[in-house]
Amino acid sequence: MPKISAPPDANTGRRRGRRVTSSLSEINVVPLVDVMLVLLIIFMVAAPMMQKGIEVKLPVSRRADKLTSVRPYISVPMSYRTDRRVWIDDEPIRAEVLAERMRQMMEMRTDKDVFLRGDAGVTLQELYEVIDHLKAGGVQNVGVTAQPRAAR
Length: 152
What we know:
The chain is α/β, with parallel strands linked by helices. It has helices at residues 30-50, 80-83, 98-106, 124-136, and strands spanning 60-61, 73-76, 85-88, 91-94, 113-118, 141-144, 147-148. It has a domain at 60-148: 2-Layer Sandwich (Nucleotidyltransferase, domain 5). It has a five-stranded mixed β-sheet. It has a two-stranded parallel sheet with strand order 1-7. β5 (113-118), α4 (124-136) and β6 (141-144) form a beta-alpha-beta unit.
């Protein structure tokens, strides 16, 4: 854009002019994009590390089907022998209070079914102890889950 200037002043002989200049009034978004990409990468790397859970090695079966229901999962880890703790979804519970906890959970539900996931190293007797606690808590059906065998 051209500069506009006024005629010279009579007293000083200088020109007093109005300068019309174009100013850069746009926001520079490149640093913002850089920061956002770095934050995105940090969260993408950190998110898998934030997931908590218990590692259960499921037994293998040829006829295991994928489950689509939202019933609670009761996990019996290998450490059940020493500490007598089972997991309801992601919450550890002592086996002694499992029946009362199931009674509280089954009050509001119409289907009184749960899935039981036992570690492959857990004995059948230990699984039956947990099933007895579940039945005492009002659970009608206990489904034992297995991991499908890998295709050959």
